[in-house]
Specification:
Blueprint (H helix, E strand, L loop, with lengths): L3 H7 L13 H12 L18 E5 L9 E6 L4 E7 L2 E7 L5 E8 L2 E8 L5 E6 L15 E3 L5 E8 L4 E8 L4 E8 L6 E5 L5 E6 L4 E7 L5 E7 L15 E7 L2 E6 L3 E6 L4 E7 L26 E2 L6 E3 L4 E8 L10 E8 L5 E11 L1 E4 L5 E6 L4 E6 L5 E5 L6 E6 L2
Antiparallel strand pairs: 1-2, 1-29, 2-3, 4-5, 5-6, 6-7, 8-9, 9-10, 10-11, 12-13, 13-14, 14-15, 16-17, 17-18, 18-19, 20-22, 21-22, 22-23, 23-24, 25-26, 26-27, 27-28
């Protein structure tokens, strides 16, 4: 779909003036811009105008073709801009919303495209070797920005050496640092950057541990490891229960397990402070007893689980929104979720939640904290919820083949 901005960019307005009129060209140009202000934006979306817009990543589905990034205005039900990508796309947005980073793969080679977010102009393409490649159309992001926007952390996999690692991209100099932080046997990961310089915490799902990385000036990582012992727990279908997500708080990290149990981790001492469960205030259950282990329980987490995900953190209200799935879905390899749980970040006690008919794969919340955005790959739909009531306030269908990620424009 072509926006008004794209139409304006394709048209050229010629002002014919008399050579004797010195000031006339200036006044004429200003008059045209006042009459056709939208065309004088030259395909540029200002920071103010981007309020309420979101980026949606379409993986392209299982067709093996390329994907796309869509800039969407859900209130107007309009696709403002489309960016075509190669296969297995991923994306990250700078904290100020000025730069969009898009990773994708063409054949065996990977690339990192840098776009000016206001105009959609491609600024530069960087070689991005050893891209971690998903095996399914639905996957989580493996690009994470530092809070100050100076560093982009990229999770990678070098096939010849069977090595997983994190590479650091300098967003100012627009180049990868020469060294990297090795993460042996870390097949999949959720990354949580720290506001304190080049520090990163990685939750490795295949080894059930945390890797605390302090990245040197050359990109090499000094790494310490904290095992998270799940004690071989399985759900009632006999499948292993894995790690779900990382909730970063000023007091440290809270690691959420798929069955709703949690590890409270001290980020300074890099040790486990406490074992517990989600919503311990109302759920009289210990870390050692999982509701997934029994068929029927009088517990709101009974028969449910939390898939691997990045939760939506509402910093102003101190709340985190987590997707919760039905346990039966894990047998069908359905990684979407239809329940949204709302938790206090300090205690992880439940303060709200709602059910939806959607099968969401990703959620994101706006800076004000009053709108929650989710994407449903099955129906190719973007959904906007009132974050307090859970009511759907806007929907938009027809978003590519498989929309799996959403990022709110700040």
């Amino acid at each position: 779909m072509r926006s008004l901005f794209s139409i304006a960019k394709s048209k050229t307005l010629e002002l014919r003036v008399k050579p004797t009129g010195v000031r006339f060209p200036v006044f004429a140009a200003l008059s045209v811009c006042m009459l056709l202000a939208v065309f004088c934006t030259a395909d540029r979306v200002s920071a103010g105008a981007q309020s309420g817009l979101v980026y949606v990543l379409d993986s392209g589905g299982a067709n093996g073709k390329g994907g796309q990034i869509l800039l969407v205005d859900p209130q107007q039900k309009q696709i403002v801009r489309t960016i075509a990508t190669e296969r297995h796309p991923d994306m990250a947005l700078s904290p100020d919303g000025s730069r969009l980073y898009v990773a994708s793969a063409a054949d065996a080679a990977g690339k990192l495209d840098i776009y000016d977010a206001s105009s959609g102009k491609l600024l530069r393409t960087i070689d991005n070797k050893d891209r971690w490649t998903p095996t399914t159309p639905t996957y989580i992001s493996h690009l994470v920005m530092s809070p100050d926007g100076k560093w982009l952390y990229v999770f990678k996999y070098e096939i010849p050496t069977d090595l997983y690692y994190v590479a650091t991209f300098d967003t100012t100099r627009e180049t990868f640092l020469p060294e990297f932080a090795a993460l042996p046997q870390c097949l999949n990961a959720v990354m949580s950057p720290s506001s304190e310089g080049k520090q990163l915490t990685v939750m490795c799902t295949s080894t059930d541990d945390l890797r605390f990385i302090k990245i040197a000036a050359d990109g090499k990582g000094k790494i310490s490891r904290l095992p998270l012992r799940l004690r071989g727990r399985t759900n009632r279908h006999g499948q292993l229960v894995g790690l779900s997500n990382v909730v970063a708080t000023p007091q440290g990290y809270k690691i959420v397990v798929g069955d709703g149990s949690i590890f409270e981790v001290n980020s300074d001492t890099k040790s486990i402070n406490r074992l517990g469960v989600l919503d311990s205030k109302s759920r009289k259950i210990s870390f050692n007893v999982s509701p997934s282990l029994v068929a029927e329980v009088d517990d709101w987490m009974g028969g449910k689980w939390l898939p691997l995900q990045y939760g939506a953190l509402a910093a102003k209200s101190g709340r985190v929104y987590l997707g919760i799935s039905q346990l039966a879905d894990i047998r069908r390899a359905t990684w979407g979720f239809s329940t949204i749980g709302v938790f206090d970040t300090e205690s992880l006690n439940r303060v709200g939640g709602f059910e939806t008919t959607r099968r969401l794969s990703s959620i994101s919340i706006n800076p004000a904290g009053d709108r929650l955005y989710g994407v449903d790959p099955q129906t190719k739909t973007l959904v906007v919820f009132d974050s307090s009531s859970g009511k759907e306030v806007a929907t938009m269908k027809g978003l590519g083949e498989s929309p799996i990620m959403v990022i709110v424009v700040p």
